[in-house]
Design a protein that fits this description.
Strand content: 5-15%
Distance between the termini: 72 Å
Oligomer: single chain
Radius of gyration: 21 Å
Structural class: alpha/beta
Shape: globular
Number of helices: 14
Order of helices and strands: HHHEEEEHEHEHEHHHHEHEHEHEHE
Helix content: 40-55%
Strand order of the largest sheet: 4-11-10-9-8-7-6-5
Largest sheet: 8 strands, parallel
């Protein structure tokens, strides 16, 4: 039987194609919110460009048939070294965070849920028992305790504290409009761009719901509805920035595996170790924080060299293919987290699209391992890469006493 030429093939062969489909499927402002970086976009661009500066050093013969990709992160087994990064409000598709979680479970990896998500921790942890819950430093300590208790009761296996957020809104190309809520007024205002994407509109109509821009995980005890995005932003603005003592308090209050996300400096990594974290993620918030921050892959080696034997070191920012994952692991990461790549998969084809993205990364990791003659991700080292002079950046190296310098 001939296939219907008017029905697009739901499968895609690269994350670049997933991005193109996401752009085709989504209303302009929704897609703009996914790709946006702060100010001129220097950091979001460098996050990807830096990977292209790194080369691979292949062998021509003597390859091994096995290609082991499994690892553990904060006590959870992963079939491949890729986690779903916590990203807020995944209402780019009716499947949303639940579909993302099911895709991660189907491919044997961890779902990290933002507390700005559009689906509850209870729904997501039920869809994927290997779920980490992410929190910003917002609200007073009692509010944070209540949110941690809720995540613990729901079955979250670890907590992620994201502190690399200063909400830099200025973008040289303009910021996409985010409505306070999807009501009749917002629908009429956004109608021209939404009507240009009838397939996207139909997918929500068929699901019987509209995109939800509220944050149920920020709801007060006894309430179902959480604040809107701007309500959450107001809470953040009125919360004093955390100290290192606050980080240690949060880790102690959680009482289980704890990751600090947003580390770019050696001195911060050392303070994180002192605070007792289980893991840290070398991250610049996907280029959405301070523009001009170096790409995460540039600052990873110095941090991994200094603290990698004391805590688990992960990386997020700029991962678009399996070879990028291999490069990060060779430079000291235990695993990586993907944000935009998984969102593009979700926008392109829902849960199946996210599974497609994870399959692409698995295939790319396998190809790179095979070509370099490395049977396991645990054996990856810097010598497997071609690293140009001046590639790395070392931020916050402590000034040591002369007698300690060797």
């Amino acid at each position: 039987m001939l296939s219907n030429p008017w029905k697009p093939n739901p499968w895609f062969e690269s994350i670049a194609v997933a991005q193109k489909r996401a752009r085709k499927n989504l209303p302009k402002s929704v897609y703009g919110a996914l790709v946006a970086g702060s100010e001129r976009g220097q950091t979001v661009t460098d996050n990807q460009a830096a990977f292209a500066e790194l080369g691979l050093a292949p062998h021509v013969a003597g390859h091994r048939t096995e290609r082991e990709m499994a690892t553990t992160v904060m006590g959870q087994h992963l079939d491949l070294p890729v986690l779903i990064s916590p990203t807020g409000v995944q209402a780019v598709h009716p499947d949303a965070e639940v579909g993302m979680a099911k895709a991660a479970a189907a491919r044997g990896t961890v779902m990290c849920l933002s507390n700005f998500a559009s689906r509850s921790i209870e729904e997501v942890a039920a869809a994927n028992p290997a779920t980490f819950f992410q929190m910003y430093w917002t609200g007073d300590r009692q509010v944070m305790i209540e949110r941690m208790d809720r995540a613990r009761r729901a079955g979250a296996k670890g907590l992620i504290a994201t502190l690399d957020w200063s909400f830099s809104m200025g973008r040289d190309w303009g910021s996409p409009e985010i409505p306070e809520k999807v009501d009749l007024h917002a629908a009429l205002r956004l109608a021209p761009e939404v009507l240009r994407r009838p397939r996207w509109l139909y997918s929500f109509a068929r699901s019987g719901s509209l995109p939800d821009l509220t944050a149920p995980n920020l709801a007060a005890p006894g309430q179902e509805k959480g604040p809107t995005f701007f309500g959450a932003y107001y809470e953040w603005m009125n919360t004093p920035p955390p100290t290192w003592e606050d980080v240690e308090w949060m880790r102690r209050e959680w009482g289980g595996p704890f990751m600090l996300k947003g580390v770019c400096r050696i001195d911060d990594a050392l303070r994180a170790v002192d605070a007792g974290v289980t893991a840290l993620s070398v991250s610049n918030h996907g280029g959405n924080n301070l523009d001009g921050t170096p790409a995460t892959i540039r600052v990873l080696p110095a941090i991994a060299d200094r603290v990698g034997n004391q805590v688990e070191v992960l990386l997020d920012g700029g991962i678009r293919r399996g070879s990028d994952v291999v490069k990060a692991l060779a430079l000291g990461a235990r695993a990586v987290m993907i944000g935009r790549a998984s969102l593009w998969g979700l926008a392109a084809n829902g849960q199946a699209g996210v599974e497609n993205v994870l399959d692409i990364l698995r295939s790319g990791i396998g190809s790179a391992l095979l070509g370099m003659g490395v049977p396991s991700i645990g054996e990856l080292r810097p010598e497997h890469l071609v690293i140009p002079e001046g590639f790395t950046r070392t931020l916050g190296a402590p000034v040591e006493a002369p007698e300690l310098v060797r």
